[in-house]
Write a structure and sequence with these properties.
This protein is about 40% helix and about 25% strand. The protein is rod-shaped and about 105 Å long. It is α/β, with parallel strands linked by helices. It folds into 3 domains: about 5-85, Winged helix-like DNA-binding domain superfamily/Winged helix DNA-binding domain (Arc Repressor Mutant, subunit A); about 90-160 and about 270-285, Periplasmic binding protein-like II (D-Maltodextrin-Binding Protein, domain 2, 3-Layer(aba) Sandwich); about 165-265, Periplasmic binding protein-like II (D-Maltodextrin-Binding Protein, domain 2, 3-Layer(aba) Sandwich), CATH 3.40.190.10. It has a 5-stranded mixed beta sheet with strand order 4-3-5-12-6, sandwiched between helices. A 5-stranded mixed beta sheet has the order 9-8-10-7-11, with helices on one face. The longest helix is centred in the first third of the chain and has 28 residues, at about 60-85. α1 (about 5-15) packs across α4 (about 60-85). The relative contact order is 0.14.
Length: about 290
């Protein structure tokens, strides 16, 4: 039982006239009649009552016409969507990210995707850097945003945004940006930092700030969450160092001093599986 049987049946059911239906289908009338007879034989029912001057659908024919209209329409839509998916114009994109990527990069990317590829659905998962790498390796994510210098092959990482570091102090701390002379003056203060597991390369970059200032900091707490860091700072548990982009989006009783005079920078990178040839992924990377 072939798909064309049902396509032929649909045209005859619409025309209720074999000659006109054959003309629409660009086949001979005898050939069309044979196809409909074969369909009836396969189904074991009559679909048409054939009279000398007219053709009518039987009750079985009316039912089949109703159902076939629906699933042929769905098949047409499926074929169209398959083409769009193959061209990367529709589909489902799974993105992992660390919190700082949500300040600017992710919202800008989502707006661009919505404008350029309105049929693309995006799902988001906030994950630590190592968890994103593992999810990408397991094909549970299509794209990630991390603060890592290197990722294992076949993953590929490219820089998206380079940022300075900022010192985080309680709102009432007696030090202003104009008075700040360097981290060395804060050697006796405890510090709150992102955990090394957050990203070893990021942690080493931050520790290099202290090495250049000539001391090893006393760590009072460590976490992977920026809002937790700010709450700890606000409550006097220590000072902190974060990417400057994390100044945005938080209403906390803390203040920031941007460390513009140090050479260290922190880079947000986009990472994906270099062996993933999905067209949608390529299109979104092009937008990014």
């Amino acid at each position: 039982m072939e798909l064309r049987y049902f396509q032929y049946f649909q045209v005859v059911a619409e025309e209720l006239h074999f000659r006109r239906a054959a003309e629409r289908l660009f086949i001979s009338q005898p050939g069309l009649s044979r196809q409909i007879l074969q369909l009836e034989e396969e189904l074991g029912v009559r679909l048409f009552d054939r009279h000398s001057r007219r053709v009518e659908l039987t009750p079985a024919g009316r039912y089949l016409h109703e159902r076939t209209t629906l699933w042929l329409r769905d098949l047409d839509q499926t074929i169209a969507n398959t083409r769009l998916t193959g061209q990367g114009l529709r589909g489902h994109l799974r993105i992992g990210y660390i919190g700082s990527a949500m300040q600017q990069t992710i919202p800008a990317l989502l707006l661009a995707v919505k404008e350029t590829y309105p049929d693309v659905h995006v799902s988001l998962r906030e994950l630590e850097n190592p968890a994103q790498v593992l999810a990408l390796q397991n094909r549970e994510l299509d794209l990630g945003f991390v603060r890592m210098e290197r990722v294992p092959a076949p993953l590929v990482a490219r820089p998206v945004l380079e940022d300075t570091f900022s010192l985080v102090l309680p709102e009432g701390y007696p030090l202003t940006a104009e008075e700040f002379t360097g981290l060395a003056a804060l050697r006796h203060e405890p510090f709150i930092l992102f955990e090394p597991a957050y990203s070893e390369s990021y942690y080493e970059n931050v520790m290099q700030l202290f090495d250049d200032a000539g001391f090893t900091p006393t760590l009072s707490h460590s976490t992977v969450n920026a809002s937790s860091i700010y709450r700890l700072v606000a409550n006097g548990f220590g000072l902190a160092i974060v990417p400057t982009i994390l100044r945005e989006g938080y209403a906390m009783p803390v203040k920031f001093i941007e460390l513009t005079q140090v050479p260290q920078r922190t880079t947000l990178r986009v990472v994906w599986d270099g062996e993933n040839e999905d067209a949608l992924l390529g299109n979104v990377l092009g937008l990014l």
